[in-house]
Design brief:
Length: 93
Amino acid sequence: KDAEFLKSRSPIHKVDAIKIPMLIAQGANDPRVNQAESEQIVAAMKAKGIEHEYMVFPDEGHGFAKPENRLKFYAAAEKFLAKHLGGRYEEAM
């Protein structure tokens, strides 16, 4: 019963439902979302031909504490959104 519930909540079992491009950012030291789990879903998306971008921050956990990493993520998100929603962005310095 619990295993069934967990499976129903797991993103890896919902890859077929992904219909839009995704930007995934992962802290390598995340205690909540293991990097291997993110890499599993990225591999599944790649196998299904789902457009995605995957960023790993080696010195972060769950969330981005370091200002330079936040800025790098914000710049990537701005570029990703401009590409997929139509718009403009400024190159990061």
